Structure formats: C-alpha cells, structure tokens
Amino acid sequence: MTNSRLIADDFEMLLEEQDRKGMVRLLTAGSVDDGKSTLIGRLLYDTRMIYEDQLAAIRRDSARKGGDGGALDLSLLTDGLRAEREQGITIDVAYRYFSTLKRKFIIADCPGHEQYTRNMATGASNCDLAVILVDARHGVVRQTKRHSFIVSLLGIKHVVVAVNKMDLVDHSQEVFDTIVRDYANFATRLELPDLRFIPVSALLGDNVVAASTSMPWYGGETLLHYLETVHIASDRNLIDMRFPVQLVNRPNLDFRGYCGTVASGVIRRGDDVVVLPSGAVTRIESVIAFEGEVPEAFPPMAVTVTLADDVDVSRGDVLVHPGNLSRLDNAFEAMVVWMDEEPMALGKQYVIRHTTNTVNGQVASVRYRVDVNTLGREPGAPLAMNEVGRCTVRLTRKICFDPYASNHVTGAFILVNRSTNRTAGAGMIVDRATSLRSLEDHWDRETLESLPTPALSRISADERARMLGHRPVTLLLTGLSGSGKTTLAYALERRLFDAGLSVCVLDGRRMRQTVSRDLGYSESERSENLRRATDVARVLNEAGLICLAAFVAPSAAVRNKARQALGPDRYLEVHVSAPLDVCRERDVSGIYTKADSEQLADVPGVSFPYEQPEQPDLVLETDRLSVGDSVERMLELLRDRSVITSR
Amino acid sequence: MTAYSLTHLRQLEAESISIIREVVAQFENPVMLYSIGKDSSVMVHLAIKAFHPAPLPFSLLHVDTTWKFREMIEFRDQFCAEHHLRLIVHSNRTPEAQSLSPLIHGSKRWTDVMKTQALLQALAAGNYDAAFGGARRDEEKSRAKERVFSFRDVHHQWDPKNQRPELWQIYNGRVHKGESIRVFPLSNWTELDVWQYIHREAIPVVPLYFAAVRPIIERDGLLILRDDERIPLKPGETVQPRLIRFRTLGCAPLTGAIESDAITVPEIIAEMLVATTSERQGRAIDHDEAGSMEQKKREGYF
Ligand SMILES: Nc1nc2c(ncn2[C@@H]2O[C@H](COP(=O)(O)OP(=O)(O)O)[C@@H](O)[C@H]2O)c(=O)[nH]1
User: Fold this and answer.
1) Among A262, A483, B168, B268, which one is most buried in terms of CB atoms within 10 A?
2) B178 touches A: beta carbon within 8 Å
C-alpha cells in the first residue's frame, strides 16, 4: 500500500501537468482514398489511443475485408455508421479524440466525397486548424481546391498540406516541391495566413509522429510536432468585448444574473457596459463563476454577470464596452453555404439563429455564386444544396453583429426552415465596409472624370451627328417586367437600323449579367445598376449612337438622376405601361410565378414599389397598342424632338 | 498556460455549461437522464455549475432496470438528497417486463425492454421536449458522428441520415410537437477527461469504481459481482473473493468488473493511461453484433 501511495504522489504531479494541457480542434479533409482515415488511424495508433479490443476488432474487420491480404487497415478504426461502412465512404462529420502530454486534440473528420461541401463547412466551423491531404501521385486536384476554399471561407487560420503516399513516389523531393509550388500558386487567391507543407506516408508512419528516415531532404517538423506546438492562442479576439446574454438567471428577488459565454474580449468587474440593442448604459457589478466571484472573464468562459443598475436585459441582448460597439442593423451581407435539399428561396421567411438570438428574416438577393472548384464567380441565383454565394440578408428587427473575419461568434448565423425545422444554411457576415462600397450612392460623387478636363477627342459631337445623320440620344423605356420594354426596344432598333441609322439596345437583363452582376435588387442596388447603365449609355451617345435602354427603373428619383447625368436634351423617357395582370399573364421571365411562391422578393409592382413616371415624353399602353403602332409612336417622338429628320 | 487561455478541462467545462444553459433557454420541458455512473456525476455537476446560485431548473430521470447494483441505488439517493435534486425513477412495469430476467433472456432483449422501452415510457409520460444524456463521442464508433443536439422523431427514433448540420456553437433545437432533442453536453469529453475532472473537482462517484475485495463469479469471460441473491450459481461456478473494480456500471449480471487495485482517482487515471482495453468492453450489450449500438440508437436507446 505504502508503495502505491508513493506512486500516487508522483502521479499527482503528472496530473497537474495534464491539467495545464491546452486543446486544439482540427479538421482533416481529402478526396476519397487520399489516405485520410489511414492518417487519423496512424495518429491515434502512434499516440497509443487505440485499445487492444479495438485493435482486435480492426484486425477482424481487416481480415474480413480482405484487402491487402488482410494486413492491418488503420482506416477501419475511424469509419462510423454501418450504412456508410457498406458504401465504403465516410459521409458525415465524425469526431475523434487523442491527446499527448502537451495537448488534447479534437479531430473533425470530414468526408472527401464530391457532394459534401456542407459537411466540410460544418466540421470547419469550430476548428483552429486544418490538415488537407493531397495524394502525392495526383497532386493538387479539384477537390484540394474546394477543400481549401471552404477552409478559408470558414476562417481557419492554420493550414497544413500533408502530401501523402510519399512512399509511392519514391520519396521524391521533386514531386513534393512541385505540389508545394502548385498549391502555393493557387492559394494566393485564398485567405490562408499560416500555410505549411509536410511530406508524409500515413501507411508507414513517415513524418506523422516519427520523423522519416526515407526523406532526409525534408528538414521540417513532423505533423504531430506541428500540431503540438502551433500557436493558436492569439487567434482569439481579446479586444472587442461581446457578451451575448444566453439566459436570465433569477432564482429569487435578491438575485438577477445574466448567464452567457464570453464571445470575445475581456469582461471585468467594474466595466462600464452598453446593453445592445436598447443602448442602456450600466456597469458590471460582478462576474460570477461557480467557484465564486472572479475579477474578469474571457473567451470561451461561461459565466454569470450581475449589473449595477436595474436595466432591461433579456436573452439575445449583447453587452459591449461603450467605446467599442458592434454593428446594429436589420440587414447584412454574408457568404452563405446552403445545406438543405430544398433550395434557397428568395424572400421566403427563415428563422435566423445568431449568437443567442432568434429572429425572422429572408435572403433578399444573391449577388453571386462561387464555383467551389474553380473559385470563379457566377451570376447570382438562389443557392441549391452545397452551393456557396454572397447574399443580402434582411431581418425583421435589428441585431448586433460583427464581421465574421473579426469575430467568429458574432459574425456567424444559421438559417432554419420554418416548416421542416431543418438547418438550411450557414452564413458568415461580410465586413460591411467592403460590401457597402458598391451600395454607396455614386450618383453625385465627384470623380476625377467629372472634373473639367480638356476634351481629348478631336471629333466634335456635331461632326458625328452630321456623318451619322441623326442626333445621339438615350431613350429610356421604363415599365414593369412583362410590359414589353425589350420587345419594343428591339423592334424600334430594327426600324432605325433599316433606315440607315446607328442605334443599339442597352438591355437591362444583359446589363445584370455583365456590368452589374455583383448587384442584387434592393433599392440601393437598383439605383446603382441604373447609374452604371447611364454611364454606358453616355459612352454610346458620345460615340454618336442612339441608345435604346430597356430597364424597369422603378424609382422616379433615380430616373431623374439619369436625366441629369445624360443631360436633358439627350434623355427621353418612354413609359411602357400595361396593367399588372397583363404583365403577370405574359410573365416572360417567370418572375411573377416566383414572386408568388415566395422565391423572389422585391418584384416591382408586387413586392416593391414602381413609381409611375409623372411627365414621360411618351406613354405606350401596350395592352391596347400593337408592337407596330408603338414603334410608330416612338419614331414620331424621335422626329418631333429632331433626333432624326422627318423624312 | 499563457494569459487568457483555458486548459483543456476548462474549455470542455465551459462548452458543456453553455450547452446545458442553451437547452434551458430553448426548450420548455427538459429532463436530465441520470444513470448514476461517473459521466452522469460529471454532467450533473456541470449542470449545478451552470445555474449556480439557482437550483437546477429541471428534474433528473433515472431509468431503473431493477437490476442495478445496490451501491448505485444507495449512492443515487444520497447524492440527490444532498444536492436537493428532483429525481424521477421509472421502471418498466408491463407484464412482459415483469416476466423478464437478464439471467435468462440475454442482454439484447433485456436492454430493449428494460432500458429502451422503459426510457420511452418515461419520456412520453413526462412530455419532455429535450433530454440530456451523458454519452460521449469517444465511447463507440457510431457515437463519433452524433450531434450535440440530436434530433428524434415522434417515435423517439434516431435517423442518422436526418440529423441537422451543427455549426459553431449555434444549436437548432426547433421541434414540432411530439418530436424531441437528445442533448449530449459531454460529447467532446473522453474517458480520461472525465476522470481528470472528477479528480480536480472532487466529484463523488459510486464506490464500485474503486477497487475492493468483492464476491466474484467468472462467467463467459466476464467477472460478475454477486451483488444479490438473485444471481444464482450455474453448475461448476464458485464465488471467489477478488480485488476488483468497475470501469463502467450497468446491470449487475451484465457488467463485467476488472481486476485492479486502484483505490483513488489518481490511481484510476494511472491505470487508464496504461490500460490496453476500452471501457465498453465490459458491457455485454456491445458484443451482441457488429453495429449493435447503432441499431439500438435507431430504436430510441440513448
Ligand atoms: N502506399 C500508401 N498507401 C496509403 C497511404 N495512405 C493511405 N494509403 C492507402 O490508400 C487507401 C485509401 O486510404 P484511406 O485512408 O481509406 O483513404 P480515405 O478515403 O482518405 O480515408 C488505403 O488502401 C490505404 O491503405 C500511404 O501513405 N502510402
């Protein structure tokens, strides 16, 4: 007994050491068969996290599977559910644990399958670090890029590229170097502040836990050594104090505590704080942990605070320092990963969960989609499962948030389908400063170009008009979707062209696909779209052309700005008018059907105001006029205003 | 540790407390499953911390198979009295259950009727929309993919294909009437973490976890504690006094002991660091068939 008592005393010291261990959450990703399961199995095996009975089970399964002549298959250790085992692929995030004397590790084991962007995002959301597997024989492949993109999207700061199966490429330094170069090239497009490369053989254990003797040219550290020593503490935001109230704890009349987890920054006894969104100001009276009062708390501590004043605070409110407020708004831009089989519907009400808040909201627009394989941007359309895009989200009330880049807690949210209750999407709020740049009002901004500059062109407007035989002008055809703007614009173009005139159509839909593909359909974005269209029209007019611009242009104020920008003598406004039900019936672009099924928000005339032109130069009631008649009337207008001669 | 960082146990503790509070904030009628084992002890300890100085805002529920070790029941009653915890005890009292014995009918049928079905009866009776369980992801393969908030349909069934993606620490606990969520606040803890925490926080656990000389029958490779006159000797079997302890606790006739002389928590940890078998090995239930845990979970088992 005395003996084992002594051992226990020694052991107390070891235990205390264990008690000082840190924790690292990491993610592993790779394509199928890159050796991810083998690598994890290797880490667990070499750090002695596998027990005899588990090993025996793997031996049995290895023999049954029969691959490799029944040799021990470490990958069997980590595969989980039976259905998946039968398919032979991992299709859901599985969590593994191992620890060394220095650190405890939580591995989010993410599947390599093509379709599972959502699982990667899920696994990545809580990780400090990512290990991306590359098969040395195949190098950087599409999926490597996809995985790296998601890792950077979710804001993981440390990435290790483990170049695996080095044993199958003769441990060649050249192969390794080429992969490093390829990857580094492509990664410049991503936000990956700390990037490492390690050549490994998961199967044989080279450079995983023990240094390899087969790759003397590699002077770097082993994977495990890196994992044990990588500095992650400074990744946390200790500056911007955010304390989202999770629960009001009120056991009796004498105590009212606000429970929560510190999201960022340090909260101290005696701090002045502001309660958002109410704006009430008070002071932290005490910070209470179970052990008793503590002077301060920092992330991710879960504590209870009491306040000096009797202010109104409830779940979802956020305590911040007065000099350092978070954003407070009912709309934001975000990168969204769609996770539900039911595709995103614009304008549909979702439940948005953000910190401890629950609020209704909608995706108002998708600015663009990101092709996760090429990183290319595609025109915005509602997202389907596993798609990623930049969206505008609108809420029914204001909440406090920060950009995800500076705060992973207050910058993240999920969208929940109200009828199925499934988690449909996950979003990361984008810094407003950049997102709003394009939403700023550029109409009246002084640009270098608008300052007086000497005319560079040696051809005067008159000379052009004389040569072309007409005066340049922009004819804005404004009206609801389906009113006939585009049809009339192209019909008129034909007539003018046949008469030998120089004319072109500026088509609103084309404009959306090109110059304005980053824009959505909010009021400010529509305004910006027309401003750009106006700039294009001006260039066309300066070249002497007649420009027929077919745009909904629902706002009278914005149309007026276009008139100002082009100059009143180069601007004519034609109101292409048809009753809403006629437009609906025509529904050329399917826009009204979508509006009705809540897939589309902000449809002018339905869910967005269309302001009738007050003094248009011409009104065409297309439900009563034929296309030919309408064209005749426009020709008349052009003659009338001496744009074209009255021949 | 450097300034403003937490040790791994502190981080795990904070995460669990935050999960437990979130359940109370999101649900109307949660309950905490209490199995009397070490994981339950830790879970209850964390819950007490989460709401301190207020009392626990939910009850504990113990599903009693009527074959638990006597020391477990004693410990339970004392522990709950000491901490002023509301405890609900439920056993399956149907005629089928009354006619069943773990000695005769095998662990599969026994577990189904006395654990799974009994649990479902208790959950239905209490109309709970959330139930905490002390399961950990490191326990068993099929648990590795378990969510912290695990969705169950109106039949309390678990469909691995129909689980909600769980991102950051944002938990989606929305359910329709009759559906529920099982919550696992200890998801990220390992067996070693649990013991280290028990040591650091001096959390009381059932004495059966510590080595003592106890009357033992060796049966089918398991060391069975003859806790009770209800366990008859089979021909050829004898009761031997042996120095043993338990790594995991369940029904007396179905739970195997291990030979050990660890009588303190540090000694248990020391033993575990050199151990070569996993903790579930002592449970008859997992040996039944490959994937048996997954099957049981689909049927409603915790
Ligand atoms: N030669 C060699 N084979 C490996 C290595 N790592 C994994 N493999 C083999 O590659 C195959 C796929 O490995 P697995 O771990 O299941 O891949 P996963 O789909 O990424 O999990 C298995 O047959 C492994 O034995 C390695 O470093 N060298």
Assistant:
1) A483
2) no
